[in-house]
Design brief:
Blueprint lengths: L13 H6 L26 H11 L8 H15 L12 E6 L10 H19 L3 E3 L3 E2 L4 H10 L3 H18 L10 E2 L3 H16 L3 E11 L4 E3 L4 E2 L2 E2 L7 E10 L5 H10 L5 H11 L2 E9 L7 E6 L10 E4 L4 H9 L3 H21 L6 E9 L6 E7 L10 E4 L5 H10 L7 E2 L21 E2 L10 H14 L3 E6 L5 E2 L1 E2 L9 E4 L3 E4 L27 H4 E3 L6 E4 L3 E2 L1 H4 L3 H4 L12 H7 L4 E5 L5 H15 L12 E4 L2 E3 L2 E2 L10 H8 L1 H10 L7 E2 L3 H25 L12 H21 L5 H22 L14 H18 L4 H10 L16 H4 L3 E8 L2 E9 L4 H10 L1 H7 L4 E7 L3 E6 L1
Parallel strand pairs: 1-2, 1-26, 3-4, 12-14, 26-27, 28-30, 31-34
Antiparallel strand pairs: 5-6, 5-9, 7-8, 9-19, 10-11, 10-18, 12-15, 13-14, 16-17, 20-25, 21-22, 21-24, 23-24, 28-29, 31-32, 33-34
Helix pairs in contact: 3-25, 5-6, 8-9, 10-11, 19-20, 20-21, 21-23, 21-24, 22-23, 22-24, 23-24, 24-25
The protein binds one RNA strand of 87 nucleotides through helix 2, helix 9, strand 11, strand 15 and helix 12.
Length: 900
RNA sequence: GCGAAAGUGGCGGAACUGGCAGACGCGCCGGAUUUAGGAUCCGGUAGCCGCAGGGCUAUGGGGGUUCGAAUCCCCCCUUUCGCACCA
């Protein structure tokens, strides 16, 4: 699906939106003219050049980025240089940046994101890889719907206009995207495959329905997203928000909990930080489920989950979550069912808001029922407690106040018994239940625990779990913090869930051939009442595909995280009308080799994508089992200490920067200012420095370009003088550094600084060698090889600069006589023989302090170095009156002398 | 509270496997050029002492390992991020 060729259902031509002219700010008519900062070129390369300048009287072009950038962007588009198709003969590289939510305008924070990907993609391309670098739009979601409600603009119009504008911005930045693979998740050509995958999951029992609570505004009669709840109140009408239980759709991600956890071990190229966050999110804990028989209820028992079965003899009460299914039945059987329920309900409400605000006082009430601790045989009271969670474990816990802080606080508050069953065995004084002010959760030995007394707590864990199983009162089990993924949204701007509700047949999947279930064209968005889709009778009323009777469509739409959980596969085959993607195309491109994006997606997006990958793997559609080989989480761009956002009004627009300095300067600055992972505080002042550098490159290369294009190749090393060999050494040293800094290290800032060093050295070289534009072909030194050396250095410079500043590089490359552009060029080859130093400067330490530096031949042996160091005048003066006890020679690096 | 990452000049940052701390850039100072400003080119720029050769002190603080520590180990402080009644 190519966005620019698609007509949306309401006839809105996306093509028009996408092809809209660039921002008026940049149109030729009103572009600021005062940009011209180089009225004349003076003294670029020292005196020689100035003299030459005067002789030649040739007009010298200034660096005028806007003209250059426009020229090359047009050429790249016309020649479709970034388009790629599968080619098994060439090594592939899939370079991905997180796609964008089309919020309206890109800001310099987005630019930084996309620049990291573009530098890597462009460099890999030059290194001979077949690079796919796609882009697209995560274009469903709440903001479009909010815009519809507030400004009466259709979400589709709002979204597509934003896409058009942002696409223009990205194109003006010269990012090397394979635009022919562009996708937008809000188009039926995309979202039908969300529906397809959903149906596959439904067939496998991975998509299911159950009751779950949502935020409900009683006044607007509508469901609210968390972000629409402000201080517990509706964002629109300020009514207090309620909890309401609805039947909702879930994806059974918990089925993959173990696989998702195991996979983390193999993600060696992900940041440790992200892996830790994912591990915690999955939250595996091993423990046991134990049944506490409920008195007065034939055969019924309360099942509790515990990670500390070793403390069970100290379990003096049982706590139920307010949402526990027993609570309702206990209320029914109690003397005052109404009061009972009211107390439980109060906790439920409190729990929701408590989660949003932070702290809640621990509270509970006695159900009046008792259960039996199956290990002690004692009767223990059953309470309902607000801090026990229905969704974790079994929704019930045993209260062990001596060894759990929350239980202790609870027991003290309600005067429940406390019993110490673990005594520390590190020699500290024994614990007593009465004096206990803090629960003891540390190691120790069991006491007052019947036959288990005397065991270490770890031994007891195993023994007692075994015992529970043997006696039929429990078993060892594993719990996850991870919960199933609720994907139902009572929203318009999302993927309709392809299910039909039939009175007779129940939940009936929409047949595959009827996909997509398209969004109806709702025009009025009030933000009130039922799900918007439920208000469209033509959409809702349908016939059952199974029995042909009257039926209703599901009116929930999908969470937008579904869209983003597999989009990277769609890029591999964006026009497929038979399947979400051709497995062969994905086999060639996937997994993603390099994925870069914001750390804010470290958990949800990345874990959902990993989940989808594993499901698609089980469906036989993909072969690999992890979607992203390498992940880089890039730092945010702050302004005034805050993330840029429209609401904060601290957005820096890249168009403003481009108008003043050009895209290349902005690109260079954002990669040079800090390492990619680090967050940065935006400051305009640094841009000047980057602009200055590019001007310096231009003034170095452009006047010499025509001459260099005629320069011969380097003949032989013997013909070069010291300065020329030194220049080549610098050139190849820089090639080595930049080659590894850009990838795999992705230390883009140090790559740029290496290039700056090269330019500095080139200026000095030109000055001393007399290589001005007016110099004779043989150079002032009469050496034709000088030009050969210079050509090698400057071509390497231009090539290595090209991932960062592609427009400038293309222009200079062309002027250097390469008519076929950088697309046909190859990354410069590093030659270790050339880079090898002829002499080394070796520091000499005496008792750990540098006292001298020796200039020695690169192949001096250790004995010679040691002798030379000891003979040094400075060293000798520091050794006077002392005895040398030890000399360490680190070959090629340093001599360290120890003396007393 | 738990987990993770990070603390280096006036500022952004560099130092790859333990081997010359401060690359590169910003800013600032000086010089050249210029009628002037701007731009450009050249030089200087961690602190302290010294006329100088040179010396001393410095990578959040304190200990340790080592011939040698920004880097490794222990303790502490600070900051940022993530999760948080998870049984």
């Amino acid at each position: 699906m190519v966005v620019s060729s698609v007509l949306s259902p309401d006839g809105y031509a996306i093509m028009n939106a996408v092809a809209a002219s660039p921002s008026p700010r940049l149109s030729a008519a009103n572009r600021p003219n005062d940009f011209h900062v180089h009225p004349a070129r003076r003294g670029a390369v020292g005196d020689t050049v100035r003299r030459a300048d005067a002789q030649m009287a040739s007009p010298v072009s200034d660096y005028t980025p806007q003209a250059i950038e426009k020229k090359w962007q047009r050429r790249w588009t016309e020649q479709r240089v970034f388009e790629v198709a599968e080619d098994p003969a060439r090594p592939k590289f899939y370079c991905l940046v997180m796609f964008a939510y089309p919020s309206g305008h890109a800001h310099v924070g987005h630019v930084r994101n996309y620049m990291i990907g573009d530098v890597v993609a462009r460099m890999k391309r030059l290194r001979g890889f077949h690079v796919m670098h796609p882009f697209g739009w995560d274009s469903f979601g709440l903001p479009a719907e909010n815009a519809a409600i507030e400004h009466h603009v259709h979400p589709r119009t709002w979204t597509l206009d934003n896409i058009a504008h942002m696409k223009g911005q990205l194109q003006r930045l010269g990012i090397s995207y394979a635009w022919e693979r562009e996708i937008a998740t809000c188009l039926p050509e995309y979202y039908r495959w969300n529906q397809w995958i959903f149906l596959k999951m439904f067939e496998r029992g991975l998509a299911y329905r159950r009751r779950s609570t949502v935020n409900w505004c009683p006044s607007c009669q509508t469901v609210l997203a968390n972000e629409q709840v402000v201080d517990g109140q509706c964002w629109r009408c300020a009514s207090d928000v309620d909890a309401r239980a609805l039947e909702q759709w879930f994806l059974r991600i918990t089925e993959y909990a173990e696989q998702l956890l195991d996979g983390i071990e193999r993600l060696s190229d992900w940041p440790e930080k992200v892996l830790t966050m994912q591990r915690n999110w999955i939250g595996r804990s091993e423990g046991a489920q134990v049944r506490f028989p409920l008195a007065g209820a034939q055969g019924e028992a309360i099942e509790v989950f515990t990670t500390r079965i070793d403390t069970i003899f100290g379990g003096t009460f049982v706590l139920l979550a307010p949402e526990h299914e027993l609570v309702d039945r206990m209320a029914e059987a109690s003397e005052d069912p109404g009061g009972f329920r009211a107390r439980a309900r109060r906790f439920l409400a409190q729990d929701r808001t408590g989660r949003l605000t932070g702290e809640i006082e621990k509270e509970g009430f006695d159900t009046g029922r008792v259960a039996t601790n199956p290990f002690t045989g004692e009767s223990v009271p059953v309470w309902v407690a607000n801090f026990v969670l229905g969704e974790y474990g079994t929704g019930a816990v045993m209260g062990v106040p001596a060894h759990d802080q929350r239980d202790l606080e609870f027991a003290r508050k309600y005067d429940l018994p406390v019993r110490v069953v673990i005594q520390p065995d590190d020699g500290s004084s024994p614990l007593s239940a009465e004096a206990l002010s803090e629960a003891y959760a540390g190691p120790g030995r069991l006491v007052d625990s019947g036959e288990f007394s005397g065991l270490s707590w770890q031994a007891a864990l195993a023994k007692m779990t075994e015992a529970a199983a043997a006696r039929g009162i429990g078993q060892g089990t594993v719990q996850y913090r991870l919960r199933d993924w609720g994907i139902s949204r009572q929203r318009y701007w999302g993927t309709p869930i392809p299910i039909i509700h039939c009175q007779a047949c129940g939940l009936v999947p929409v047949p595959y051939e009827d996909l997509p279930v398209e969004l109806p064209d709702v025009t009025a968005f009030s933000g009130q009442g039922d799900s918007p889709l439920a208000q469209v009778p033509e959409f809702v009323n349908t016939t059952c595909p199974s029995c042909g009777g009257a039926a209703r469509r599901e009116t929930d739409t999908m969470d937008t995280f579904v869209d983003s959980s597999w989009y990277f596969y769609r890029y591999c085959d964006p026009n497929n009308t038979e399947l979400p993607f051709d497995p062969d195309a994905v086999r060639y491109w996937a997994p993603v080799d390099f994925y870069s994006g914001g750390v804010e997606h470290a958990i949800l997006h990345l874990i959902y994508s990993r989940f989808f990958c594993k499901v698609l793997h089980d469906l036989g559609l993909v072969e690999h089992d992890e979607p992203f080989s390498r992940l880089l989480t890039q730092g945010m761009v702050l302004k005034g200490g805050a993330v840029m956002s429209k609401s904060k009004g601290n957005v820096v627009d890249p168009d403003d920067m481009m108008a003043t300095y050009g895209a290349d300067t902005l690109r260079l600055y954002e990669t040079f200012v800090a390492p990619p992972e680090k967050e940065i505080e935006w400051a305009d002042t640094g841009l000047e420095g980057s602009f200055r550098f590019l001007g310096r490159v231009w003034r170095l290369v452009e006047p010499l370009a025509a001459r260099l294009a005629q320069a011969p190749p380097i003949e032989s090393v013997e013909t070069l003088d010291d300065g020329e060999r030194a220049m080549r050494r610098k050139t190849h040293g820089t090639i080595k550094r930049v080659s590894t800094d850009v990838y795999p290290r992705v230390h883009l800032n140090t790559a740029v600084s290496a290039l700056m060093e090269l330019v500095n050295e080139l200026y000095v070289f030109c000055d001393t060698a007399g290589c001005g534009p007016g110099a004779p072909a043989t150079g002032t030194a009469g050496r034709i090889q000088t030009w050969a050396v210079l050509r090698e250095a400057i071509e390497a410079l231009v090539l290595m600069l090209s991932p960062f500043t592609p427009h400038l590089a293309e222009e200079l490359w062309e002027r250097l006589g390469h008519a076929d552009g950088l697309t046909a060029a190859r990354w410069p080859e590093f030659d270790p023989a050339v880079a090898k130093a002829e002499t080394l400067v070796i520091p000499v330490q005496v008792n750990g302090k540098v006292r001298a530096r020796l200039t020695v031949g690169a192949d001096s042996d250790d004995a010679a170095l040691e002798a030379q160091a000891l003979a040094d005048r400075q060293v000798a003066s520091h050794l006077a009156g002392k005895t040398v006890t030890k000399v360490v020679v680190a070959r090629g690096r340093l001599v360290s002398i120890v003396a007393k």
